[in-house]
Amino acid sequence: MKSTKASVTCFMGMSLMLLLSVFFTLLEMVHYYALGKVEPLVSQISIESAFADYNRMLWEDYGILAIDASYGTGAFDLAKVTDRMRAYMNDNAGISTAKNASHGTSLLSMTSGEITVEQYGLLTDCHGVPFMQLAAKEELYETTGNVVGLLTENAKKIEAQENEQPNVDDILIDAKEALSDASNIAFELEQSGEYIADVSDMAPVEVDNPIESVESAAGGGWVSTVLPAGKTLSGAAMAGGERVSKRTLAVGSAPSDQSLSIDEKIFYLKFLIDHYSNFAHPKNHGGLQYELEYMVGGKTTDEENLSSVVNRLMLAREAANFAHIMADEAKQNEAYLLALAMVGFTANEAIIEATKMGIIAAWALAESVLDVRALLAGKRIALMKTAEEWTLGISMISAAFSTKMEAKDCAGGLTYEEYIYGFLLVMREKTLGLRGLDVLEDVLHHTQDYRYVKADQMIYCMKVDFSYEAAPLFLSFVVLLNDRPGAYHFGRQLSMTYIE
Which three-class secondary structure state does DSSP give residue 112? Predict the structure, then answer.
């Protein structure tokens, strides 16, 4: 039998060994390439899963997305956030935190290294600008047509009315002085038994004095006067010192040069109108019931905040109603005739004119009482009324304060919320943002699950560094390597935000 030389077998063995080394090296290259593809997916899954763990109540009730970094405990801790990411990483991608952990038969096994939050932003940063941007974004999705444009146009008209406000108090003071002078003249005439020849047929006449009616009604504040029939005041209050707007806030590490655009402010105000409770349309949230009024007044009780809004409404309506009467010749004549009946016996044109202006001011104010009462009852009131929309006759001025009469509903007028929108439009962004967060936090604190949540622990954006290790799988079969290969190291930085 013919034998085979051993030299041929050695050559073949060495050739096979070399081919296998090349083969396993190529396999390892594929393995490394695949790890590089899997690593960014794992990181993305991790951060997206963390951002999916937002505060449910904020989202469901207000459409606001934010992560509670305390997870309901009230203790801010970024380690809790990174621990959640590791947990999601393990659950969704099988990434372990232990270097000797078993990965089963997976060829793409990796071990998580450090997860570090490099930057994070809080809802309260920049006086609540991120919160306002999120709210504006939510409202943008919900609003159709030119609703916001019409609101803003009307709001500017309300502001103009307030700026053109005649000094009704000064007019009434002048009228009271005129009445006092008339009273002195009447006393002197009565004492002397003489009447001025030209006006001997105009002795003092007993008539209802609208100026005195206004003075008496205004003495106790306007809230109780304008309250609609069947309505009662809320006694709810907010904890004063712990409010977002009054305490020292935590600050995020993300860049803090954010600012609110004009469009964002407008949509934010529409968000407040749609989502915050108010006297005319309560939503029965926990805590304050007049949330929209709190945005204007900033006081700790519902009654104080309602009073702030009512006073603003009275000023706005007084200006509009005073202007209406001054433009209506018939109403001016009525006021003049009443003034003649009251002080015409003095034959003093200055006294008569001052009394007439006082009557007009009282008439405008009385109509304003009816207007505000109607607004609180859910009716609409026009910015500038027509003669048909006017409610109160001059003989009924005192009835505005002694009864629960309401102004006529104006089909093209503004609602209570739309008037408040006008007040909010001229307020500072800082005040609007922090007071808005005051309300949200107050509502959360009146629920069992979120009673420890704080607005300055709510994260809206993060920049996170991820690192991983993976062991080579096939290099151990490459016999030409003299040293044992080390682990692969991967790293990635991802950013995520709810705003964009």
Answer: strand
Long-range contacts, 320-323 (Cβ 8 Å, 24+) = 320/161, 320/383, 320/384, 320/385, 321/363, 321/364, 321/365, 321/367, 321/368, 321/371, 321/385, 322/166, 322/168, 322/360, 322/361, 322/364, 323/164, 323/384
Structure tokens at 186: 């009447």
CB 173 within 8 A of CB 333: no
**CB within 8 Å of 47: residues ≥ 6 apart:** 85, 462, 464, 494, 496
CA proximity to 492, closest of 110, 90, 14: 110
**Distance in angstroms (rounded) separating the CA atoms of residues 450 and 68:** 10
Q: Residue 267 is which amino acid?
A: F
pTM: 0.83
Q: Are 339 and 359 in contact (CB under 8 A)?
A: yes
- Residues 412, 418, 424: CA angle, nearest 5 degrees: 150
Q: CA-CA distance, 217 to 232, in Å (whole number)? A: 19
pLDDT the model gives residue 206: 55
- β-bridge partners, 496: 462
CA distance 430 to 377: 31
Residue ranges covered by each domain of the chain: 144-242+279-445
Integer Cα distance of 336 and 450 in angstroms: 62
How many angstroms separate the most distant Cα atoms in the chain? 168
Q: Which two tokens stand for residue 291?
A: 């949330």
301-352 residue pLDDT tens: 999 999 999 999 998 898 899 999 999 999 999 999 998 888 887 888 888 8
Which residue is it, tokens 């909010």? 424
Query: What are the phi and psi torsion angles at 408 (to 5°)?
Result: -65, 145
Q: H or E stretch including 464?
A: strand 458-470
149-153 own/partner pairs: CB under 8 Å, 24+ apart: 151/266, 151/269, 151/270, 151/273, 151/418, 151/421, 152/266, 152/425
Question: Do 176 and 215 touch, CB atoms closer than 8 A?
Answer: yes
